[in-house]
Amino acid sequence: MSKASLSRLPPSQEDAELARVSGQRLAPLARMKRPLTMSVRDAGRDTIIELPVGAVQLLMDILEDMAAGHAVTIVPQDAELTTQQAADVLNVSRPFVIQLLKDGKLPYRTVGTHRRLRFEDVMAFKTAIDRDRRLALDELVAQAEELDMGY
């Protein structure tokens, strides 16, 4: 899956604040929808880098999510996941994912003896189960209100 990581670690408070300040400084430049030339200083040495428009917008999205305290994951659109990575994305066990594959609920392909799932398919499945959970919760809330079980 290239160098993308499926880490779920949220940023520290310090990193979230740094992301907020950096995002505020970058936002006016990002709105211009032009490539940016940036000077990056590390260990007292300046390096000039150019960022394409798409990378600038992606950087803004990352900073906004980090500032909100969210963990950020970058995955290429055509990425394939292992069953363990899919389990991590879905927040379920690997055996549960294997059962979903056997039941035909998630498409996959085999590479040798290994199963690979398209990231897009896993995210579509996640969206569907999240929607079903919300609907079930809404239904329970409505039933509780009907029975006057509120606070």
UniProtKB/TrEMBL annotation:
<dbReference type="Pfam" id="PF12728">
    <property type="entry name" value="HTH_17"/>
</dbReference>
<feature type="domain" description="Helix-turn-helix">
    <location>
        <begin position="81"/>
        <end position="127"/>
    </location>
</feature>
<dbReference type="InterPro" id="IPR010093">
    <property type="entry name" value="SinI_DNA-bd"/>
</dbReference>
<feature type="region of interest" description="Disordered">
    <location>
        <begin position="1"/>
        <end position="20"/>
    </location>
</feature>
<dbReference type="InterPro" id="IPR041657">
    <property type="entry name" value="HTH_17"/>
</dbReference>
<protein>
    <submittedName>
        <fullName>Excisionase family DNA binding protein</fullName>
    </submittedName>
</protein>
